[in-house]
Design goal:
The chain is of the alpha+beta class. 35% of the residues lie in helices and 21% in strands. The protein folds into 2 domains: 6-149, Creatine Amidinohydrolase, Chain A, domain 1 (3-Layer(aba) Sandwich), CATH 3.40.350; 154-381, Creatine Amidinohydrolase. The strands form 4 sheets. It has a 6-stranded mixed β-sheet with strand order 4-3-2-1-5-6, sandwiched between helices. A 5-stranded antiparallel β-sheet has the order 13-12-14-15-16.
Length: 382
């Protein structure tokens, strides 16, 4: 059930080993499910419990997981060496991890730990530190695989493009179903049906959507709203294809269009187009934010902007599809071909209670960026 050929995984492991060598690491222990999927194809939601993937400087791989994931690990990945820890009172998978590292000759060696991982809770990190104390030198290597993953391969970009096309279908579904008297959850359900019907996967996060006063929310919220005759509805859907995510953001208006909405849409569209012009190899991620900040200031909307205007996307598992680097002020990360970014221009105006958002996902190329999904530049009005 591999979604990439074995040679693709071999190349990813080779690049990661080169990064390990540059960091002076003899071994690497990974806890992010994104890292495991990237390097081996291992696909599971079992990262909510303790599991760890070891990668040695020699390229050896060993997985420590639970019985519930034994078969799935074998069938979805390139991993041959699978160890099981038994979940019971008094169990210490950290000690099991130490035994695996011992077998790989890691005693007194420099071992990187992927501490920044949703599966490695604070309590579990303390357990790992305790089990490995005095055994080896632990190095925080949270960013190592994440940086390797930033530049996507040709095959990865094919999945990104497929995800982007599904996003476009979701946009059309939302336009078709957004009418006064309809509830936001009814529209959400139709959009989710499109996601799955077009071959997509459930996304790593719930989609922020809201009408009326909730249109100024940036996050998913419980409850529901009925669309009014004169209303604003904000949408931030995403699509996932083989866990590769693309996102978009937009508003749909009903009834009479407020002139402030028109001004906000003009600012958002100019900012997005300008940022996409700057999304080129050799520029910094921070230059994207500076472009966004400058244009919103010219239009008089600095008070309604956020401190970031997008982020990298790619492989993601719950709870979020947001990946590093974030597009914020002075971020020095150099943009390279093969990187993928979601650029969102968000205006949430406390002065008027109005919102306007325009966002698309784009691939960095050797020239102009490639937009993999497309949001209309004119106001969407039903």
């Amino acid at each position: 059930m591999l979604h990439f050929p074995p040679e693709e995984f071999a190349e990813r492991v080779s690049r990661t080993r080169a990064a390990m060598d540059a960091a002076g690491l003899d071994g690497l222990v990974l806890f992010r499910q994104e890292s495991m999927f990237y390097l081996t194809g291992y696909d599971t939601s079992g990262y909510t419990m303790f599991q760890a993937l070891y990668l040695g400087a020699d390229g050896q791989l060993s997985l420590l997981t639970r019985t519930a994931d034994r078969i799935q690990a074998r069938e979805t990945s390139t991993i041959k060496d699978i160890h099981i820890w038994v979940d019971q009172d008094g169990a210490s998978p950290g000690d099991e991890l130490r035994r695996i590292l011992q077998d790989h000759g890691c005693a007194n060696k420099r071992v990187g730990i992927e501490y920044h991982a949703y599966g490695l809770t604070g309590q579990r990190a303390l357990m790992v530190n305790h089990s490995l104390e005095g055994f080896c030198q632990l190095i925080d290597a949270s960013d190592l695989v994440r940086l390797v993953r930033l530049v996507k391969s040709r095959l990865e970009l094919e999945y990104i493009r497929q995800s982007g096309q599904i996003c476009n279908h979701i946009l059309q579904t939302s336009i078709q179903h957004t009418r006064p008297g309809t509830t936001v959850k009814t529209i959400y359900g139709a959009m989710l049906n499109t996601l799955l019907a077009k071959g997509g996967d459930p996304t790593a996060s719930r989609w922020p959507m809201g009408a009326g006063e909730a249109a100024v929310f940036c996050r998913y919220h419980t409850g529901d709203e009925t669309i009014a005759p004169d209303d604003q509805i904000v949408f931030e859907p995403a699509a996932a294809y083989r866990h590769y995510h693309t996102c978009m953001m937009y508003n749909i208006l009903t009834g009479v269009v407020d002139p402030h909405h028109r001004a906000m849409n003009e600012a958002c569209c100019e900012a997005l187009d300008s940022c996409q012009d700057v999304l080129r190899s050799g520029n910094t991620v921070g230059s994207l934010h500076a472009t966004h900040e400058r244009i919103m200031k010219v239009h008089g909307f600095s008070h309604a902007t956020l401190s970031a205007c997008g982020y990298s996307v790619g492989i993601s598992y719950p709870p979020t599809w947001m990946d590093w680097p974030m597009i914020w002020q002075n971020n020095p990360q150099i943009i390279e071909p093969g990187m993928v970014f979601f650029l969102h221009m968000i205006l949430l105006d406390d002065h008027t209670g109005l919102s306007m958002c325009v966002g698309e996902t784009a691939i960095v190329t050797d020239g102009a960026c490639e937009r993999v999904n497309q949001v209309p530049r004119q106001i969407i009005h039903n």
